[in-house]
């Protein structure tokens, strides 16, 4: 794992399986998400923290960069053509932009009933409910849940158009680094991907680090990946004169 200067670390937490996490990641700080034990998926939503009406746009992130998988050197676009996060390092290489998050219905279909009355803290938490809990802390609600990104997971589009899970993307110790290019409100749900094939509800813990990162140079690979990315950065930088 790439070393991080301890003097720059702002947050270092381990998040148990099934939990959610939310925080504002300030511009020019980096969020590292570490797959500690072979994750079954980490769902992510992100917003402009200064004006949450601007948020992650899955379609533009895919279309503008001409690929359905995001990895190091790519960025996460907002629906206003600006850059929320740059992916500066990625040792996993498997992140799904297509399938969305789990819901109470998908959990029941795969794992059976798993409510609090019967399982207490081992209940089957799902991505959508966790997002609602996380966003509620910031005055947001159901209408603010949009198509999300799933880390440490991979799907493919079958010939008939259905999405299929691809095995082999679970890599204990893998991580992804997300550098904030504006003040980003992020919500994570550490819950299994809706297509994960296991019939047992068993989400794994993740580690989250946030640190102050150096300012990117003019030759930064995320800024120079394509002309559209450069335009997105110029639009973003204009918010911070």
Write the layout of secondary structure elements.
Layout: E1 9-15, E2 20-25, E3 29-35, E4 42-48, H1 58-65, E5 75-77, E6 83-90, E7 95-96, H2 104-111, H3 116-119, H4 127-136, E8 149-151, E9 155-157, E10 163-165, E11 175-180, E12 184-189, E13 206-212, H5 227-237
Explain the overall architecture:
The protein is α+β, with helices and mostly antiparallel strands and 241 residues long. The protein is 17% helix and 28% strand. The protein has helices at 58-65, 104-111, 116-119, 127-136, 227-237, and strands spanning 9-15, 20-25, 29-35, 42-48, 75-77, 83-90, 95-96, 149-151, 155-157, 163-165, 175-180, 184-189, 206-212. The strands form three sheets. The protein has a six-stranded antiparallel beta sheet with strand order 1-13-3-11-6-5. A five-stranded antiparallel beta sheet has the order 2-12-4-8-7, covered by helices on one side. The radius of gyration is 17 Å and the shape is globular.
What structural class should be given to the helix and strand makeup? alpha+beta
| Ends apart, CA distance between termini | 34 Å
Number of extended strands: 13
Mean pLDDT, to the nearest integer, reads 95
Q: What is the molecular shape? A: globular
The main sheet comes to: 6 strands, antiparallel
Q: In which order are the strands of the major sheet placed?
A: 1-13-3-11-6-5
Subunit organisation of the chains: single chain
Helix content: 10-25%
Whole-number radius of gyration?
A: 17 Å
What is this entry, summarized?
This protein has 241 residues and is α+β, with helices and mostly antiparallel strands. The chain has helices at residues 58-65, 104-111, 116-119, 127-136, 227-237, and strands at 9-15, 20-25, 29-35, 42-48, 75-77, 83-90, 95-96, 149-151, 155-157, 163-165, 175-180, 184-189, 206-212.
């Amino acid at each position: 794992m790439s070393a991080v200067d301890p003097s720059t670390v702002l947050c270092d937490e381990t998040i148990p399986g099934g939990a959610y996490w939310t925080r504002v990641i300030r511009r020019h700080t980096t969020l590292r998400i570490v797959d500690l034990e072979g994750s079954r998926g980490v769902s992510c939503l992100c917003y402009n923290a200064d004006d949450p009406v601007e948020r992650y746009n899955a379609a533009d992130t895919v279309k503008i960069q001409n690929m359905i998988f995001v990895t190091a050197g790519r960025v996460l676009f907002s629906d206003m053509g600006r850059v929320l996060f740059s992916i500066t390092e990625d040792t996993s290489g498997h992140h799904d932009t297509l399938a969305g998050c789990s819901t109470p219905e998908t959990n029941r279909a795969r794992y059976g009933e798993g409510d609090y009355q019967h399982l207490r803290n081992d209940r089957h938490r799902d991505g959508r409910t966790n997002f609602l809990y996380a966003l509620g802390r910031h005055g947001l609600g159901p209408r603010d849940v949009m198509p999300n990104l799933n880390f440490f997971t991979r799907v493919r589009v079958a010939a008939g158009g259905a999405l299929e899970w691809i095995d082999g993307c679970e890599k204990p110790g893998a991580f992804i680094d997300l550098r904030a290019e504006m003040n980003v409100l992020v919500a994570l749900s550490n819950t299994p991907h809706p297509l994960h094939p296991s019939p047992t509800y068993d989400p794994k813990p993740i580690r989250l680090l946030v640190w102050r990162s150096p300012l990117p140079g003019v030759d930064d690979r995320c800024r120079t990946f394509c002309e559209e990315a450069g335009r997105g950065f110029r639009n973003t930088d204009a918010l911070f004169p």
